[in-house]
Design a protein that fits this description.
Layout (H helix, E strand, L loop, with lengths): L33 E8 L5 H11 L20 H6 L6 E8 L9 E8 L7 H10 L2 E7 L6 H12 L4 E6 L8 H12 L3 E3 L1 E4 L7 E4 L4 E4 L11 E3 L3 H19 L3 H8 L6 H13 L4 E5 L8 H11 L9 E5 L4 E4 L8 E10 L3 E10 L2 E2 L3 E4 L4 E4 L2 E6 L2 E5 L1 E2 L4 E5 L9 E3 L5 E3 L9 E7 L2 H17 L4 E4 L6 E5 L2 H14 L4 E3 L3 E2 L2 E4 L3 E9 L6 E11 L6 E5 L8 H14 L13 E9 L7 H18 L2 E15 L3 H10 L3 E8 L2 E9 L6 H8 L5 E11 L2 H10 L8
Parallel strand pairs: 1-3, 1-4, 4-5, 5-11, 6-11, 33-34
Antiparallel strand pairs: 2-3, 7-8, 8-9, 9-10, 12-13, 12-24, 14-15, 14-23, 15-22, 16-21, 17-18, 19-20, 19-22, 25-27, 25-28, 25-29, 26-27, 30-35, 31-32, 32-34, 35-37, 35-38, 36-37
Helix pairs in contact: 3-4, 6-7, 12-13
């Protein structure tokens, strides 16, 4: 059992006159009645459909949008509507009156961010999780926990986001609620417990049993669209199962509430209010996940999910204060308070065709008024907010002020990038920004005309500002513009957006692989740069030792010179030269990773030594050491999970083997076979199309970055020859 001091302190305020003094008198919804939630899951689990139902039942829209019809409110981009997938996270606000619990009948503000499920757009999930207080993890009742489900779960753990789980698609053939809960425990390590159990399943999914309140909700009239789900006594055939799972829920919640534990051990009747409070404490502690069954498409169980969002997910006041650093680098806590100095995080940029640059902003403390000047500690500059808007996907609602805990969009601030802190000038604090994965795939892009050349520069500048996983650089050897991103679909969407939004006609080349180079043994290297041209010459001399570093550590340069063999002022240019040389290895000219370079010796000339000479000497020393350290080329390896009917299993395994893949394991689930494998990225172009051909359209694949591995020697020569890069000449 946890001691009460270990469990989070939960404040439940039902009277507006008794809300915390940190609330401004002008805010429409007190902090205690505000929820910031994200909806996250694997692709095609039903996130957007769930969001649409939430908006309908909360009265924000009067007609339900459908993904397959291209009418979903949160999928507002043309590309999203054509493909039926979510590409960009959409923010939207609604209000909800809970039908049960301490806040029954009290209207709550629910700010929702609908996130993408495709692995190529994982950055959208990353930055959304960074600013949310709670999340709804959606799982498919048939497929259970899928690869991208695990990714978003890890992201939520990373940023400390409490969550409830919605097991969607309970009406589908093969749906199994209890298997999905079991998979959450096994694959995610979640302390998952049903808050409701289903009545019937597949086409007979007719209701849910509320284990907290000990009643049943029946979905009787489909024409009623579940607007008025009726309460019933628990059906006799489900009474024993409901009793069993309620006992398990009480046992799990007792770990977080001493009073509940005491009553339970003494055999006293557990009230629904006491159990609800304990479940809320457990959820906010991050050590418990309540699970709700439903079918968003069939409009079943969504209102119960909304009740759980209000009753169990935290308000901005319930979560630990956001941490940041002051100008001296000391850690400070940013505590939620409307009356404090202002600080918040710019977590997303978007170019709106009507108002220009929109900066999505989460207010952590203070009150932001329209017309306020905000200070950016990164640029050391202040910028004025000309307008403040609440986002409703693509629509905007003008507001005069945003308060602590609010998510809004700013118009008028220009020099901002994702992850910037914006605050009052006399409150110099930097909040921790979200972190993003490195791109794994690149392609060349060429404008079709001189006019397109100019527009291309503007388009790329805006798109890179919006998307932190998109990188643009010019290849020094070929002069080509190289675009790097998270996958084929990611780059395809970027090219499509250029044509539609920026009217840029451009030709894209075959995607390039983001190879890396590293070393396998230690070595010594020496670099000398000597030029005599009559008068003052150039002299730089650097000696280094190179050794392999731990995986994922990158390039580390350590100064170990003694006795002033290299003067202090020349250590920095020597280091810069080494790091510059690490951008182009000696095998095929790709960036070098996971090496330690120790600057151990060197010499200088009183007159001829300069920063430029030592920078060049650093470059030469790195190349010299690299050649002797048995360098190897690394290629990105992807984790591929294929779900296929069993009759195509042999063909698909054979196809993976042909692609230099390695089968890790297989499992059967509902007459489908799931094949787990690692496959080099180079062999995966067009893979999804190919497996559809092999399986008559019945197989699907999930591909996500895994790790880097050495390129086989048999392919090394071919890659080096075909590479547009070349090792830098020494």
């Amino acid at each position: 059992m946890l001691l009460m001091s270990d469990a989070p302190v939960i404040t439940i305020v039902t009277d507006k006159s008794k809300v915390s003094p940190v609330n401004s008198k002008n805010r429409p919804f007190p902090l205690e009645w505000t929820r910031n939630i994200g909806i996250a899951a694997h692709i095609d689990a039903g996130k957007t459909t769930t969001s649409e139902r939430i908006l309908f039942y909360s009265g924000s829209v009067h007609k339900m949008g459908e993904v397959h019809e291209g009418t979903a409110v949160t999928d507002w981009m043309e590309q999203e509507r054509e493909r039926g997938i979510t590409i960009t996270a959409a923010a939207i606000s609604c209000a909800w009156n809970a039908s049960c619990g301490p806040w029954k009948g009290i209207k709550q503000r629910v700010n929702i961010i609908d996130t993408p499920g495709h692995v190529d757009f994982t950055a959208e999930v990353e930055r959304s999780m960074r600013v949310l207080d709670g999340a709804v993890a959606v799982f498919c009742a048939v497929a259970g926990v899928q690869p991208q489900s695990e990714t978003v779960w890890r992201q939520a753990n990373k940023y400390g986001v409490p969550r409830v789980a919605f097991i969607n698609k309970m009406d589908r053939t093969g749906a199994d609620f209890f298997r999905a809960v079991s998979e959450m425990r096994e694959k995610l390590g979640a302390n998952a417990h049903p808050l409701f159990i289903p009545i019937g399943k597949e086409e007979n999914f007719a209701g849910v049993v509320d284990l907290v309140q000990n009643i049943a909700y029946m979905f009787i009239d489909p024409a009623d669209m579940d607007l008025n789900p009726t309460r019933h006594p628990i059906p006799a055939e489900y009474a024993a199962q409901a009793k069993e799972y309620r006992e398990k829920l009480i046992e799990a919640a007792s770990d977080f509430d001493d009073k509940l534990a005491e009553d339970y051990l003494n055999g006293e009747e557990i009230t629904s209010d006491a159990l609800m409070t304990a479940v809320r404490k457990a959820t906010v502690s991050m050590k418990f996940t309540g699970v709700i069954p439903g079918s968003a498409f069939k409009k079943k169980g969504v209102q119960r999910l909304l009740d759980c969002v209000v009753n169990y997910l935290p308000s901005p006041i319930d979560v630990p204060p956001m941490k940041g650093q002051d100008s001296d680098g000391k850690e400070v806590e940013v505590v939620v308070d409307d009356n404090a100095k202002l600080a918040g995080l710019a977590f997303k940029l978007w170019t709106d065709p009507f108002v220009g640059k929109l900066v999505f902003y989460r207010v952590y403390t203070g009150t932001l008024q329209k017309g306020t000047s905000l200070y950016n500690p990164r640029t050391r500059r202040s910028e004025r907010v000309s307008r403040l808007v609440l986002m409703r996907a693509m629509d905007r609602e003008e507001i005069d002020a945003a308060y602590s805990g609010d998510i809004c969009a700013l118009v008028g601030v220009k020099e901002v990038i994702t992850g910037d802190t914006l605050c009052n000038e006399d409150y110099d604090v930097r909040l921790e920004p979200p972190s993003f994965p490195e791109p794994v795939i690149a392609m060349s892009i060429e404008p079709n005309s001189k006019a397109d050349q100019e527009k291309l520069g503007t388009a790329l500048q805006r798109l890179v500002a919006e998307d932190p996983t998109l990188r643009v650089k010019t290849d020094t050897d070929t002069g080509q513009t190289i675009l790097a991103g998270m996958g084929e679909l990611h780059l395809e969407i970027i090219i499509d957006r250029m044509k539609r939004e920026f009217k840029v006609e451009a030709t894209s080349g075959k995607p390039q692989i983001a190879y890396r180079e590293t070393i396998t043994t230690s070595s010594d290297g020496e670099g000398k740069f000597i030029r005599q041209s009559g008068g003052k010459g150039q002299y730089g001399h650097v000696v280094v030792k190179m050794e392999p570093n731990e995986k994922g550590k990158g390039v580390e340069v350590i100064n170990e010179t003694v006795g002033g063999s290299i003067p202090k002022e020349f250590i920095k240019p020597s280091t810069e030269g080494i790091l510059e040389a690490a951008n182009n290895g000696v095998v095929a000219g790709y960036p070098v990773v996971d090496v330690i370079i120790r600057i151990v010796d060197g010499s200088f000339h009183d007159v001829d030594s300069s920063e430029m000479a030592f920078k060049m000497a650093g470059i030469f020393a790195f190349k010299d050491a690299m050649k002797e350290a048995k360098p190897i080329l690394l290629e990105p390896i992807m984790l591929v999970e294929v779900t296929t009917p069993e009759e195509y299993q042999g063909d698909l395994i054979g196809d993976i083997n042909r692609r230099r893949g390695r089968i890790n394991g297989m499992e059967s689930k509902n007459a489908a076979c799931i094949i787990n494998s690692h496959v080099p990225l180079e062999m995966l172009f067009g893979y999804v199309t190919d497996i559809r051909s092999l399986s008559k359209g019945r197989a699907s694949a999930s591909i996500s970055p895994s790790h880097f591995e050495q390129v086989p020697n048999s392919l090394l020569t071919k890659i080096v020859e075909s590479s547009t890069k070349a090792p830098a000449r020494t």
